[in-house]
Write the structure tokens for this entry.
Amino acid sequence: MRKFTRRAAVAAVAATAALGFSAASASATSAVTWTVTPGGAFSADAANPTLSVPNADLFCDSSSAAGTLKTGSGNAGAGLGSINNLTFSGCSLAGISFSVDVSSPLSINAESVDPNNPNRVIGTISGITASISDADGLCTASFAGPGGGNATVTGYFDNSTHQLVVNGGNLQATEADCLGLINAGDSATFNAAYDTDPAQTITAD
């Protein structure tokens, strides 16, 4: 079983990509419209997502998402899609099983084409709050954005692999009672790569 280990021992997840996108300017966002194919309802699955804080990492065996994307062309990037359900399985800390709860719905927002990789659409997933807990109450923590508001994760959508990728954001522990491994105010990074079904393609018009 994967363990919640000291961050110094953890390398970035190899495909740390999954449900998000990185930030672009507001002018770039407003100037671009998007075509989504096929769009509509989708599901997405990721293997081995991680949540990392300065002192430790929470590992999960898998994560699943379900949501909808707009269809056709001429779509605004803000609210291009939504994630209506996001779940995690097999999460553990030092061999102790944890449950992870994430708010929904979440908003998928496309912002720009990556200038270094034309297959990637940069953007965000916003509206996030989350919590973790074990059955015995040894470790509990809540996560939100700075100041306790909703958080945003960053990353990209890769049209060559049809993956939603998350690799950053502004998640922060707002409350924590977790053996000193997670502390209030800790920044947290979510990493995952979700395969979409049906395979989606998002391109700038």
